[in-house]
Design brief:
four-stranded mixed sheet, 6 helices, 37% helix, alpha/beta, 235 residues
């Protein structure tokens, strides 16, 4: 079935079952299904859809976008990039007199200064910005959470890992993914705490998760944010 509302058309599957209430569900591919009690009128189903229209469309789009994966960046003016959980448009400026390509945050804009306006240079300038910001943000977070631990990390570095947000080895050397700078501060704090807890418990056993939960009680919400949003965290 399909229905148009507020200029948008959605397709949905309507299934009648032995149940007490009508519900709207989305599958793993963003497809919409309405489950309704037998005898429910189509008009009441449509009314329920319209009452939840924006929320359903947004959720469906999020799922489909996530399945499509990261889109190639064009580095055009106004293209959004995440920083600390918020979206900032970029402005690229050609400046052959600068010593090094760089990015600065000016108000609500990521200002990119490059000697040559080429995708490779813009991308590298943005990565350098995130590397530098991530290092400072992570080190500050470690300092804030250090009172929870009797031991300290021996070193902290930023990496370009394709598989992990952070690691801690047996010598208490912490490593964090530069893309973390794109996450909200509380999500970064969770990853920092997670790796600091590995200084005490190297494995993900009950004692480890108990320690994590004592410091970040809602850590599962932070993991969900990363799982849902990681595909957007790219340059």
């Amino acid at each position: 079935m399909k229905h148009t509302h507020s200029g948008e058309t959605i397709h949905f599957e309507l299934t009648y079952k032995n149940r007490k209430s009508t519900g709207i569900y989305l599958d793993n591919y963003g497809n919409i299904e309405v489950l309704a009690p037998k005898g429910t009128s189509e008009e009441s189903v449509i009314r329920l859809l319209e009452d939840n229209w924006e929320k359903v469309l947004l959720k469906s789009k999020e799922i489909k976008d996530r399945l499509n994966g990261p889109q190639l960046k064009t580095y055009q003016k106004g293209e959004p990039f995440l920083y600390l959980g918020k979206s900032f448009p970029i402005e690229v400026h050609h400046n052959p007199d600068i010593e090094q390509d760089h990015v600065t945050l000016k108000g609500e804009i990521l200002n990119v200064q490059v000697k040559e306006v080429e995708d490779k240079q813009i991308k590298q300038a943005l990565k350098r910005f995130y590397y530098q910001r991530c290092k400072a943000i992570v080190e500050r977070s470690i300092s804030i959470h250090q009172p929870n631990f009797k031991i300290k990390p021996r070193s902290v570095r930023i990496s370009d890992s394709q598989t992990t947000w952070g690691t801690c080895d047996g010598r208490r050397r912490l490593t964090f993914n530069w893309k973390l700078a794109m996450a909200p501060q509380d999500v970064i704090d969770y990853v920092v705490v997670h790796e600091m807890c590995h200084m005490v418990h190297l494995n993900h056993d009950r004692s480890f998760w108990r320690l994590v939960g004592n410091i970040v009680p809602d850590y599962k919400e932070k993991e969900q944010w990363l799982a849902k949003t990681s595909w957007k965290m790219t340059v």
